Description:
- By secondary structure, the protein is mostly helical.
- 45% of the residues lie in helices and 9% in strands.
- The strands form two sheets. Strands 1-4 form a two-stranded parallel sheet.
- The chain is globular, with a radius of gyration of 19 Å.
Amino acid sequence: MLGSLDCLRVVYLYRDPRDVLNSHYHRMISDSMKYGPFMDFQAMDPEDQLLTCLNGMEHVASHRDGFNYIATIRETADDFVMAIQNENTFAIGFEGIRFAPRETYRRLLDWLGFGDISVIPMLDADLDEVIHLGSFEAQTGGQRLDGDTKEEDFNQSSKYFFASNIRKGEAGGWRENYTPKVKEYVKEQIGEALITLGYEKDLNW
């Protein structure tokens, strides 16, 4: 919606929708979700759990403030496609930040009009320091590193309220969990969107 307002310049972060689904799946099977309304979900086999997440989930948590909502994978992909097509939106792929952070942020600075400002130049060393602030290591006070899968003890920490939302931060993790049935269903739902977003060249994946 914000991207449709010509007076605004919007920076939008998106990710391979297949990895978004994979993150939702791991969140739903975590210890923090093994209660009340999610017991039926916990009893499913992994393939059915993934298919359930694909079609979206919603639950208002009665024992605490807040609610749990998972958009369908088609809704997620459609939102991403809309974002990258808005002229006043700079859409940043999570994968670009992970694998080419300096180049990605340089393009963002240029788009914002800071690339040619010479009064206070952004040196590579300064930019690398800013990039580090977005790493798992910096955000968790050194308790986690990018790609670290040892999340059990960390998730018990009360110091970092977002702990249960930090897992691996890797691209392509969906390949570890998708069965042929799940993969074919995802192709039906968002195969063309994945091509538009640049994650695939065709449907042969």
